[in-house]
Amino acid sequence: VLISPQANFIVTPLGGLDFSFENTSTAATAWLWDFGDATTSAEFSPAHSYDTAGIYAVTLTAYNDCDTQNFTQIISAGDAPLAAFSSNVQLGCAPLEVHFQNQSSGTALTSFNWQFPGATPGQSSEMNPVVAYAEPGSYDVTLMVTNFLGEDTTTLQNFITVQQAPLAAFSFSADELTVTFTNNSTGGTAYFWEFGDGATSDLENPTHAYLLEGTYLVTLTITNSDCGSAVSHDVAVQTTGAEEAAIFEGLTIFPNPVSRELTIVLPLLFAEGADVVLNTMNGRHIKSQRIHAPSAQLGMEELPAGLYLLEIRMGPYLTRLKVAKLP
To answer: How far from chain centre, in Å, is Cα 62?
Structure first.
């Protein structure tokens, strides 16, 4: 007495579009596989590779001389989605624009759902969106991707860090051709001054002596670890007046250029002496000395070669002279 066959099989995905099929039918003497893609096989336990991703109905027909039985399973051929992404920056200053790159894998991805708390826009369905962060802080980013096999979500916590940008500001006071600058900036750790006459300084609160009267555009640029800010102001300076010119008539310095000692010959009006200050051309103080008529020496042998600015003051009167130091 023959019994009817019972068709059955086990599917094992091999990755992507490849599968193996284990025939577990009973009482059958012949088999026919229909893989759902217009291909068939009469092997007992075949393997099969699909040409394209998709959902397929696989049917095994089991035969014997008594009966024929079918068994069908639905399989999905392709790779499930796996969400992943990167960005062009992760750390920057407010306001910060960020370009996100989708790096998800999976067969025939059909949708992208981005969440950007704290950004504008706050969500996107684009593959590679661009968003902007206006306020300092640390922000999570979430991406969910889908295809016909399902969905996958990843969240990177504190992925974007936005720092507070520093704010550059300064004030100044002019005494003749010498200007004292006060740095009123917030959030900066490094400073760079451009005085408008070609000279610069990296001091926080520099003093600069101009050689000529005029109006100069002074720019202060400040930075911290990743951010910067700049501000500019016009600074007007005036040269010594006619009264000062008369007071300093007869003042002489030599030799100029100088190698070792600079001799300063004072006018007879300087009976009470004068204060001498030697600065670099960008206003950095080198040395100070009180001198008396008729002459005095200022040692310069230890100084590097270059141009220096000599300030000579008697009471309210001030003059400046350029001194060239030889090697």
So the answer is: 67
Least Cα distance to 48 among 2, 13, 82, 83 occurs for: 13
Three-class DSSP labels, the chain: CCCCCECCEEEEEEECCEEEEEECCECCCEEEEECCCCCEECCCCCEEECCCCEEEEEEEEEECCCCEEEEEEEEEECCCCECCEEECCCEEECCEEEEEEECCECCCCCEEEEECCCEECCEECCCCCEEEECCCEEEEEEEEEEECCEEEEEEEEEEEEEECCCECCEEEEEECCEEEEEECCECCCEEEEECCCCCEECCCCCEEECCCCEEEEEEEEEECCCCEEEEEEEEEECCCCHHHHHHCCCCEEECCCECCEEEEECCCCCCCCEEEEEEECCCCEEEEEEECCCEEEEECCCCCCEEEEEEEEECCEEEEEEEEECC
Place of tokens 């202060």: 220
Question: How many residues would you count in the chain?
Answer: 327
- Asked, for residue 227, whether it belongs to a domain, the answer is yes
What distance in Å separates the CA atoms of residue 243 and residue 149, rounded to the nearest whole number? 93
In which domain, by residue range, is 273 found?
242-325
Positions in the chain whose pLDDT score sits under 50: none
Q: Where are the alpha helices (DSSP H) in the chain?
A: 242-247
Q: Are residues 216 and 261 in the same domain?
A: no
| 126 and 194 inside one domain | no
Domain count, the chain: 4
Instruction: Give one word for 259, left, alpha or beta, with left for phi > 0 and alpha for psi -120 to 50.
Output: alpha
State the number of CA atoms in the 13 A half-sphere of 155 facing the CB.
Answer: 7
Place of tokens 């005085």: 195
Q: What pLDDT sits at residue 246?
A: 67
